[in-house]
């Protein structure tokens, strides 16, 4: 059948031609195709890092193993895949459509053939059907918003997700938790929160000490129940443990931390309820809010695992349930979504896991994967980009395992460039304790801390609209062919662009910014991008489809060419070393040597350092309104707003709540909307602070703002609500005044407002 | 998850081609569900319940933009109208 879209002007455009794939009259999958497409993105994430580019056209994408996920390394530190079966197909300009396959079994996708193919790597279930959704919309953001209604928009996480999570390994210090946990206080500033992950996990009593020290503990939770524990026999008797081979079989036994153990059957809702009541509720009562889910991977459980499921489930096998297991585990933390209980607001819980599936975001869950090699920045960037497009917004990496056997002299240069690349992109930001004392770590962490209000406002917006916090360039610049294939350039919200390809010896970086006016956030300099001039005349699909079958490089080594409609079977798992460090793979990694940079004058060239330390270039788009906390660790900690006037005008809403619990869902939250009127050349700049909506207990700041305007022309006067304000001779003098304004030169102006009446609008006019 | 149909969903249309049933349903502006099956699907809830999906009552939702329109062809040789 052919699905045809009728466009606004009445013309017809083919979306997909679709047919069942049924060799030997057995329904096995779906073939689909669209002539108009040059790119296919989405499909979750492949953490085998088999790819270095975002586009999957011309590629074969396989699950990690027969159960959809697999640990591929002897040291057990690799994540391999998050199945989110949505393919966004993009054509010229804003031509686009998406297909979501409503199937949780491991899926194989083949975009190297015509038609394309998708289907489970094994048999279909008892329904013997292919269930799918087609999404149409004016652009990629519209498609993703509809997808997020299908999967559920991300729950607003606790604010601690936007502060560092420190991995600490000083086992000896565990003798005195109080002093040990207090020692982390030095790292909290400039952030409002601090989370510590202790390895190995301390006794649960440490939670109380941590709460008293105002430190969050990341709790590791496994689904395994030792046969020696008091819960084992009771849970086995009630059928709350995964069984070994069938409904009447004994519990499946695995070895975890040296002990024979059963596994909680989270597919069975009463088992989740039991575990919440018996154990987890106590831990949460003692202060646990953040959980690291470890274990339960289907390849570890093995092929005989038998899952109870809910009453409507007809399937029970590992093949059918293994990929879903992590999702049901995440659901068990946040299944009821109650706001309060016994008169107390319930806490926001956030879980991270290396496994997962489409839909996990609505349960307040993110991905914490292990990065095999921090030098392969493109591999990680494409995995993050496709994961986010597929509906999973919170993603982080842990590379501490990579450096276990190296000295800090060897690792610090790599850590420095790695941190510069990921500090603004990983949510949460997971860091090894040993790097925190370095000046480059402090510089990058302070940058992240100043932007905390921007991130948190985006997170709330995301929970309401389904827009991502972090997105590849193509999300906002879909009609820019150069942006389609950008990997290292990433957007944070609609206004910030970070170029994350810093390498240890790098002094300058070349990167792409779409056509328009941008500002360097580090020094506020204006940068005007002309875009890539070769695309000025006409869109050239061949020029932007490097993965088209006829010109395919071998970037998917180990994953391509072995399957498709003629035989959809999983490819043999490859070792992480082989897949990430093979000569073929290494040869495709863009050069990491600055000397090899090919100068292209349409690219932007900026220092990869600030104050002599590595930072990723960070651009602000014209029209941006960026809420910040300036001097976040210092005596002049203050609320500030960066404002970049434009011809279009813009708005941004600063969102605040207590960052802890569900009270925000009962209106214990505050929003302040800023409006920047369109600015005509040499005309006045008008900026309105709208009346504040709502409030919540424990608000840190009064209603005063430091407004920094950037990119101004010929400013002579500045007024607030029609009144003139003092104009001191220096920024230092401005700090001593209650209010006033000061011109910094180069088109920059700071206006310090007095404490404003939050119930009415206020207008600043610059003439 | 319940089988509640989104308020703005159109009734599903079921057609047969060869040994297969095709179910087609507009669930909201920009969102369509399809199912190809050997067994006749239930008209009340044509989609399969999987844990990936949120409550159907939240799917797609009212939309401010222009209405998306879609036509199927090929099952009986017809062309888009």
Task: Note the topology.
The complex is a heterodimer of chains A (767) and B (81).
Chain A (H helix, E strand, L loop, with lengths): L1 E5 L5 E10 L7 E5 L3 E6 L17 E2 L24 E6 L4 E6 L5 E4 L5 E5 L8 E7 L4 H12 L12 E5 L8 H6 L2 H4 L6 E4 L7 H7 L3 E6 L2 E3 L3 H9 L4 E2 L9 E3 L2 E5 L5 H17 L4 E4 L4 H4 L3 E2 L11 H16 L6 E2 L2 E2 L4 E4 L11 E6 L6 H13 L5 E4 L9 H15 L6 E4 L6 H12 L1 H14 L4 E3 H4 L4 H4 L4 E4 L3 E4 L8 E4 L4 E5 L5 E4 L46 H6 L1 H6 L15 E4 L1 E2 L2 E2 L3 E4 L3 E6 L7 E6 L6 E7 L13 E7 L8 E5 L16 E4 L8 E3 L2 E2 L6 H6 L3 E6 L2 E5 L9 E5 L1
Parallel strand pairs in A: 11-12, 11-25, 12-13, 13-18, 18-22, 22-23, 23-24, 37-41
Antiparallel strand pairs in A: 1-2, 2-3, 3-9, 4-6, 5-8, 6-7, 7-10, 8-9, 14-17, 15-19, 16-17, 20-21, 26-27, 27-28, 28-35, 29-32, 30-31, 30-35, 33-34, 36-37, 38-39, 39-40, 40-46, 41-45, 42-43, 42-46, 44-45
Chain B lengths: L12 E5 L2 E9 L2 E7 L31 E5 L8
Antiparallel strand pairs in B: 1-2, 2-3
Characterise the protein shown here.
The complex is a heterodimer of chains A (767) and B (81). Chain A is α+β, with helices and mostly antiparallel strands. Chain A folds into four domains: 2-153 and 548-572, Immunoglobulin-like, CATH 2.60.40; 159-221 and 267-470, TIM Barrel (Alpha-Beta Barrel), CATH 3.20.20; 224-263, no CATH class; 622-766, Immunoglobulin-like. In chain A, 20% of the residues lie in helices and 27% in strands. In chain A, the strands form eleven sheets. An eight-stranded parallel beta sheet of chain A has the order 24-23-22-18-13-12-11-25, with helices on one face. A six-stranded antiparallel beta sheet of chain A has the order 1-2-3-9-8-5, with no helix packed on it. A six-stranded antiparallel beta sheet of chain A has the order 26-27-28-35-30-31. In chain A, strand 30 (516-520) and strand 31 form a beta hairpin. The longest helix of chain A has 17 residues, at 269-285. By secondary structure, chain B is an all-beta fold. Chain B has a domain at 12-39. In chain B, 0% of the residues lie in helices and 32% in strands. Chain B has a three-stranded antiparallel beta sheet with strand order 1-2-3, with no helix packed on it. In chain B, strand 1 and strand 2 form a beta hairpin. Residues 77-81 of chain B have low confidence and may be disordered. The interface between A and B is large, with 46 and 41 residues. Strand 1 (2-6) of chain A pairs antiparallel with strand 4 of chain B, so a sheet runs across the interface.
């Amino acid at each position: 059948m052919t699905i045809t879209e009728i466009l606004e002007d009445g013309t017809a455009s083919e979306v997909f031609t679709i047919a069942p794939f049924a060799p030997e009259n057995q329904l096995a999958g779906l073939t689909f195709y669209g002539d108009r497409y040059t790119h296919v993105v989405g499909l979750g994430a492949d953490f085998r890092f088999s790819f270095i580019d975002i586009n999957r056209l011309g590629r074969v994408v396989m699950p990690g193993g027969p159960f959809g996920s697999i640990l591929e390394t002897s040291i057990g530190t690799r994540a391999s895949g998050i199945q989110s079966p949505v393919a966004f197909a993009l054509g010229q300009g804003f031509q686009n459509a998406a297909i979501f396959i409503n199937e949780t079994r491991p899926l194989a996708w083949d975009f190297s053939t015509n038609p394309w193919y998708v289907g489970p790597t094994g048999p279909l279930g008892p329904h013997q059907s292919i269930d799918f959704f087609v999404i149409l919309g004016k652009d990629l953001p519209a498609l993703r918003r509809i997808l997020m209604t299908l999967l559920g928009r991300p729950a607003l996480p606790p604010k601690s997700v936007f502060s560092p999570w420190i991995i600490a390994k000083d086992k000896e210090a565990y003798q005195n938790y109080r002093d040990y946990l207090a020692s982390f206080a030095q790292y909290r500033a400039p952030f409002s929160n601090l989370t510590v992950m202790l390895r190995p996990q301390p006794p649960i009593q440490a939670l109380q000490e941590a709460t008293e020290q105002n430190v969050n503990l990341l709790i590791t939770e496994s689904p395994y129940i030792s046969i020696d524990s008091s819960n084992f026999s009771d849970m086995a008797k009630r059928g709350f443990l995964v069984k070994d081979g069938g409904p009447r079989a004994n519990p499946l036994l695995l070895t975890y931390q040296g002990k024979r153990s059963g596994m909680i059957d989270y597919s069975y809702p009463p088992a989740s309820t039991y575990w919440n009541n018996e154990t987890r509720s106590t831990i949460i009562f003692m202060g646990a809010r953040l959980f690291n889910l470890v274990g339960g991977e289907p390849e570890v459980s093995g092929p005989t695992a038998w899952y109870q499921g809910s009453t409507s489930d007809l399937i029970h096998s590992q093949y059918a349930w293994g990929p879903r297991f992590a999702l049901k585990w995440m659901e068990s933390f946040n299944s009821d979504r109650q706001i309060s209980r016994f008169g107390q607001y319930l806490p926001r819980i956030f879980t991270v896991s290396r496994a997962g599936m489409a839909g996990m975001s609505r349960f307040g869950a993110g991905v914490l994967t292990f990065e095999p090699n921090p030098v392969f920045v493109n591999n990680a960037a494409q995995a993050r980009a496709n994961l986010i497009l597929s509906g999973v917004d919170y993603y982080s990496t842990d590379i501490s395992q990579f450096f276990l056997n190296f000295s800090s002299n060897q690792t610090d240069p790599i850590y420095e460039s790695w941190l510069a690349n990921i500090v603004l992109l990983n949510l949460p930001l997971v860091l090894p304790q040993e790097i925190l004392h370095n000046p480059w770590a402090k510089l990058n962490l302070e940058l992240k801390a100043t932007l905390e209000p921007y991130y948190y406002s985006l997170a709330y917006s995301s929970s309401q609209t389904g827009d991502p916090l972090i997105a590849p360039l193509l999300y906002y610049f879909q009609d820019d062919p150069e942006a389609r294939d950008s990997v290292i350039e990433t957007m944070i919200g609609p206004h910030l662009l970070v170029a994350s390809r810093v390498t240890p010896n790098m002094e300058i970086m070349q990167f792409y910014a779409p056509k328009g006016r941008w500002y360097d956030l580090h020094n506020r300099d204006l940068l005007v991008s002309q875009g890539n001039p070769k695309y000025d005349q006409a869109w050239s699909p061949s020029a932007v489809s490097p993965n088209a079958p006829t010109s395919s490089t071998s970037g998917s080594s180990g994953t391509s060419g072995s399957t498709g409609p003629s035989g959809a079977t999983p490819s043999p798992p490859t070792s992480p070393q082989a897949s990430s460090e093979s000569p073929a793979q290494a040869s495709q990694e863009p050069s990491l040597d600055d000397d090899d940079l090919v100068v292209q004058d349409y690219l932007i060239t900026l220092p990869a350092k600030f104050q002599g330390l590595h930072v990723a270039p960070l651009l602000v788009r014209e029209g941006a309104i960026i809420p910040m906390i300036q001097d976040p660790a210092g005596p002049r900690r203050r609320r500030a707003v960066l404002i970049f006037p434009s011809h279009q005008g813009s708005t941004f809403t600063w969102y605040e709540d207590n960052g802890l619990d569900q009270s925000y869902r009962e209106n214990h939250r505050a929003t302040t909307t800023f409006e920047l009127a369109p600015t005509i050349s040499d005309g006045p700049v008008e900026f309105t602070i709208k009346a504040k909506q709502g409030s919540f207990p424990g608000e840190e700041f009064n209603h005063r703002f430091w407004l920094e305007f950037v990119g101004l022309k010929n400013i002579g006067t500045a007024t607030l609500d029609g009144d003139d304000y003092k104009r001191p001779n220096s920024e230092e003098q401005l700090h001593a005044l209650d209010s006033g304004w000061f011109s910094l030169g180069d088109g920059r102006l700071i206006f310090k407002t007095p404490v404003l009446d939050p119930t009415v609008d206020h207008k600043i006019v610059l003439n | 998850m319940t089988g509640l149909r989104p308020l703005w969903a159109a009734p599903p249309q079921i057609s047969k081609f060869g040994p297969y049933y095709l179910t087609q349903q507009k669930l909201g502006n920009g969102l369509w569900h399809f199912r190809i099956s050997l067994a006749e699907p239930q008209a009340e809830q044509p989609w399969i319940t999987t844990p990936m999906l949120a409550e159907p009552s939240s799917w797609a939702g009212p939309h401010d933009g222009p209405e998306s329109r879609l036509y199927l062809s090929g099952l009986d040789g017809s062309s888009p109208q």
